Amino acid sequence: MLPPVYQVVERVVDLQGFVSLETNRYSVPERWVGKALSVYLYATEVRVCRGEQLLAVHARLLGVRDTKQKLPGHHPTPQPRPRTPPREATLLQGHDPLLDAYVAALVRQAHGRGVRPLRRLLDFKRTYPKEPLLAAVAQALQFGLFDMGRLEHMILQQVAGDFLQSRRWR
Hints:
Order of helices and strands: EEEEEEEHHHHH
Structural class: alpha+beta
Shape: rod-shaped
Number of helices: 5
């Protein structure tokens, strides 16, 4: 029995991960982009190799022009990761329903995941007393205020009022 007849050509993998052959394009794994590979043309198939290593085997496209052929494992479409709530949001929630509502509203209106304002709010929760913080958050939630600088000013007004009322200056 005679060995199959084939033609060997050298091709460089383009930026999209294909080798061009007879106006058609055949996919190869992305890691070979920019590398020179050997392409073996048989009567019914195309084999793409790097030295002794077989990278891809395609059915040869005959009678068609400007067609791409992509194997299932080549060029996977990246899948977005599921969006998880920021760690700061989970640390803030579960302590008070008013604070939970404010955190949810803050995340909804913030750009991206809202990590910066949530960090600042977490810092306020750790720094200031609970009652003035919740009073300021209630007022901010009522008026749709999400500026952390203004919220801190409101908390400080509450704290200053409590401090001055508790002290009797004579």
